[in-house]
Amino acid sequence: MPVTSIDKDPENLTMTIVADFPVPVRRLWDAYADPRQLETFWGPPEYPATFTRHDLYPGGWSEYFMTGPAGNRSYNFWEFLSVAEGESFHVISGFADENGQPNAHMPRVRMHFTFEEAAQGSRLVGRTTFSSLEEMEQLISMGMVEGTKAAMAQIDDVLADLRSFAADRMVEAQLLSDTQVRVSRIIRGSVQQVWDAHHDPELLRRWLLGPDGWQFTDCQVATDVGQTYRYAWADANGENGFALTGEVKESQPPHREVTTESMEGVDGPPTLNEQTLTSVEGGTLLSLLITYSSKELRDTVLATGMTDGMEISYSRLESEVLQGA
């Protein structure tokens, strides 16, 4: 079991957990940076976590829910106060409603995680600071210590599973709910390079070409909130074309962007696309959370081979734009 000590200090309103792991610091850090990995151990086995947002940068925000045995959900958030890549991050953590809005009636804590080299590999020191003794006693009575132990007991299996999260894996889609899909891929390049490749028209024209042999016929890029974009393609004969359009709703370069997306000429509400770029070993983890208007639309789009097309484009991004950059 990785937890080596738990120190509760009511006088200073803190609880400190120390855990040791037989892996390099970078491997341990990436388990917390990658929402696919983090959600496999953040909640205890009977209350697994699902992260619908995870922005590991200063000023970033994470949202997740834990699902109980009866299907009940507990919603939570993190607000990132500071991040030193590979070394530490500091968050405000609290309860939220199903829309991710903080619950003002429940306690909030500050959590500071430090990742250190140790004789056997790496050490995680997690220090939680409470607002008052009453809130400290309340959260501990709710099973905070037991839940943390049970959750962290799962980390070893995740850390040992290098294959599932390796940088050479193709695009993968994970169903998070009836209307949400998280698409993930590690792209061999820095966060800034991947961001620029999504916003520089000259770079976009080199990789966002669609299927082999197709033409990129229109590339109107949006970079600021409120701006609209339009991308259009046609086959080698200039026929069977289609276009995607949308509006930028949120932009936090070079880490996060939220846009709407619609297929031109097709009726129905647009999707909401939340793209986050996170530095991990081997490159940049691109996480794209897509929210559809219905389960039926979600399934219809996935059945078109969407992820296969995305893989073609991301592979081209690596080979034609980022290789040697």
From TrEMBL:
<comment type="similarity">
    <text>Belongs to the AHA1 family.</text>
</comment>
<feature type="domain" description="Activator of Hsp90 ATPase homologue 1/2-like C-terminal">
    <location>
        <begin position="23"/>
        <end position="159"/>
    </location>
</feature>
<dbReference type="Pfam" id="PF08327">
    <property type="entry name" value="AHSA1"/>
</dbReference>
<protein>
    <submittedName>
        <fullName>ATPase</fullName>
    </submittedName>
</protein>
<feature type="domain" description="Activator of Hsp90 ATPase homologue 1/2-like C-terminal">
    <location>
        <begin position="190"/>
        <end position="319"/>
    </location>
</feature>
<feature type="region of interest" description="Disordered">
    <location>
        <begin position="249"/>
        <end position="272"/>
    </location>
</feature>
<feature type="compositionally biased region" description="Basic and acidic residues">
    <location>
        <begin position="249"/>
        <end position="259"/>
    </location>
</feature>
<dbReference type="InterPro" id="IPR013538">
    <property type="entry name" value="ASHA1/2-like_C"/>
</dbReference>
<dbReference type="InterPro" id="IPR023393">
    <property type="entry name" value="START-like_dom_sf"/>
</dbReference>
